[in-house]
Amino acid sequence: MPPRRRRKPAAPRQINEAAQLADRLQAAGYTKRDIARIIDRDPSLVSQFYTKNKGAAFVTALQQVLAAVETGGITDVPELAAIAARHTQRRTTASGAPARVRSKAVLITPTGSGAGRVGAQAIASGSTPLRPLIAEAARLGLRLAFTVRLAKTGYLLPSGSRTDSPGIRRGVIQRADHTEERSYGSAQTGGFDAADFARRVDAAGGDVTAAVHQWLVETGRIREDAHIIHLEIRTWRPR
Fold first, then answer.
1. Checking phi first, is residue 8 left (phi over 0); if not, alpha (psi -120 to 50) or beta?
2. 17, 82, 133, 166 from 144: Cα distances, Å
3. DSSP tag of 227
4. Which of 86, 94, 115 is nearest to 183 (CA)?
């Protein structure tokens, strides 16, 4: 019986320069989500530096950001984002024109009605799919409401309390997993100014989850350590 051939060990996978720079930023204490905010892109793109060899267009920006962190002592994410923006160039077509950016359409009807919801995975990365909806609602002068879901123990006010969310006919939805959904704002109560929430999102560096969480904490509705696990945004045109 002829001897079996031994397989050669696989060569170590080489990661591209964008991924190497992202690794160095993570070693400096930044998460992939932070890096995505710095380059003003979705966190999934940062993951694709490693899995799909993407990120070449951001190498210069990431080099400048890393230099700012390591030698300039700059640590604030918005400041680093401003540095990255100066060194990020749009892709161009063969004719030299700026390439179109692929993005999901924001669906808001002529009456101002729109909705978007995200689950645990998007929540963890800042609920970025909801940001265009809020920005467009702000641009159109719309009102908005939202529904959050978190552990019952995360709420500070009693279930069904009118102080918490008065006049919401949906009331409270209790789940078998000891979580609870509560709605804030409605057409009946006037809801919230979308422009105000857009400003909150911008102040949070584009993190919709953080902006909503901060509002709930500021208004005494949830504990600071509570974690949102579901978020829904609804919009409409004021009468």
1. beta
2. 42, 29, 10, 16
3. -
4. 115
pLDDT in tens, 60-105: 999 999 998 888 788 888 788 888 888 876 555 666 655 554 545 5
Tokens of 105: 């359409």
Q: What is the DSSP letter of 147?
A: E
Which residues of 51-130 form beta strands (DSSP E)? 114-118
Tokens of 154: 């995360």
With a cut of 50, which residues of the chain have pLDDT below it? 101, 103, 169
Output the pTM of the full model: 0.56
Q: Would you give the DSSP letter of residue 239?
A: -
Q: What gap in Å lies between CA 65 and CA 178, rounded to an integer?
A: 43
Contact indicator for 32, 43 with CB cutoff of 8 Å: yes
